[in-house]
Amino acid sequence: MIDWAAVTPALILASGAIAALLVTAFHATRTWRWPAIVSTVSLLAASAVAVATGSIDRLTLVLTLVVVFGTFMMVLAAGVMDHEESMPPGELHFLLLSSAAGGCCLVIARDLVTLVVALELLSLPSIALVGLRRSDLGAARAAWTFFLLSAVSTAVTVMGVSIVYGFAGNLAYDQVATALAGSTAPARAVAAAVLLTVVGLLFKAGAVPFHVWIPDTYRGASVPVAGYLSVVSKSAALGALLVVLTTAFGPVRDDWAPVVAVVAAVTMTVGNLGALGQRDAVGMLAWSSIAQAGFILAPLVGLPGTAAVAAAVSYLVVYSLANLVAFTTVAICRRRWGGTTFAHLAGLARRDPGAGICLAFALLVLAGFPPAVIGLLTKYVVLLPPVDSGYGWLAVVMALNVAIGLVYYLRLLATVLAPPSEEVATPPPSPSPPYTVRFARAAMIAATAALVAASVYPDLLLGVL
Fold first, then answer.
1. Mean pLDDT throughout 256-282?
2. How many helices (H) and strands (E) are present in the chain, helices listed first?
3. Is 374 a member of any domain?
4. Is residue 399 part of a domain?
5. Looking at residues 357-378, what average pLDDT do you find?
């Protein structure tokens, strides 16, 4: 039985995707304005319907709003590419909204068939987004790598779903949970089926050992697309993973919790170590996103209940908002100075105080370093479930990785606050930047203001979540 009220936000986004493509096709000249307007209206309508729909539970509502708001931020940030003739605006907005529709379906899925279909709807437009820039061999190579690994992970997930169906005789989450609670199947076989089923979600989330596509894909894609993959695609996958593990596979938690603990520990460690050697902002944020996935997975080993899920969702929301600010700022800097290396960002706080302050605060949030109190609090919140559940070793690994993360986040922060690099020329001030850039800057400032407000009054966010 289809819950049409729950899927309405996804249907709105899918309709908006088609409208954005058509409005570009029938426009006499190449335009960024009209597809952006269509996308904005669709996203605002989808968020309003999601809030107004009484059939969506609070967890699903929060995850849906993360997907919608993240896509909205990247729609505004994508405007900085309006001068690139190789980037087709209609196709870009069509793919963004199509993938976002898949993300909404993924977080509202309550059976494994819908999960697999939504995962593909999220993935296939994302792959096309990576290789969308015409005549860019690096983007095409990154998209091809993304496609191959995505196809393999989806095949493994389908195999896991078939095994679960053999155990449970049903694919609805609640029915699977009921069947597994009374199952007499060998524990190892059940654990294998669960792990195979979540492989596709772990791949999209960038968890080790399914992380190898992230650095090359993020560097090959345009900066707004990399931001979309880092926030929207990852958040949808992690949100769906939270729901699947705690709902469908909750009765066999003792079988998968130790594996999730190891995956979380290795993921955050590999991601942080990879980020240490980066001298490019996109590359650093790519490896950082791998590490952050480990922190979001860690609370799932906590005792059954809402506290562990609330901790993971709180961290996911704050991470998403900070990463949106970081990628939007980097996209604006690439437009102005032609690159995303540390040399291009050196002295950003002096050359462009607005962008510099926003990027600096986002980095402090990701690092969990004062005065970004909300970042520090969420890191503390995700430490509690492992400690309370007897996974003290995981809490120690998390604390060590927080310290490692401080190194590269604060290094980039020092670069932003340092004098401008002589390698990059400072352009003359522009009294009237393109409207597309102004919208991106407005989104960057608004998201930063939300982080500042959450740091001053943490209960505004954590109390609700």
1. 92
2. 21, 0
3. yes
4. yes
5. 90
Q: 């596709």: which residue's tokens?
A: 200
pLDDT of residue 431: 42
CA–CA distance, 258 with 301 (Å, rounded to integer): 7
Does residue 329 lie in a domain region?
Answer: yes
Place of tokens 């870009």: 92
CA distances from 63 to 121, 122, 128, 158, 364 (A): 17, 14, 24, 24, 24
Which residue, 465, 207, 101, 206, is CA-closest to 315? 465
The single residue listed with the structure tokens 């939270």 is: 242
Token pair 């996911």 is at which residue?
Answer: 316
Q: Rounded to whole angstroms, how far apart are CA atoms 313 and 206?
A: 17
User: What is the domain range of residue 417?
Assistant: 249-465
- The phi and psi torsions of 279 (rounded to 5 degrees) equal -125, 20
3-class state of residue 172 by DSSP: strand
Task: Give the C-alpha separation, 247 to 244, whole Å.
Answer: 5
Q: Is residue 29 part of a domain?
A: no
Residue 175 neighbours by CB distance under 10 Å: 14
The domain total for the chain is 1
Express as a percent the part of the chain with pLDDT over 70: 93
Distances, alpha carbon 251 to alpha carbons 167, 170, 239, 348, in Å: 13, 15, 19, 51
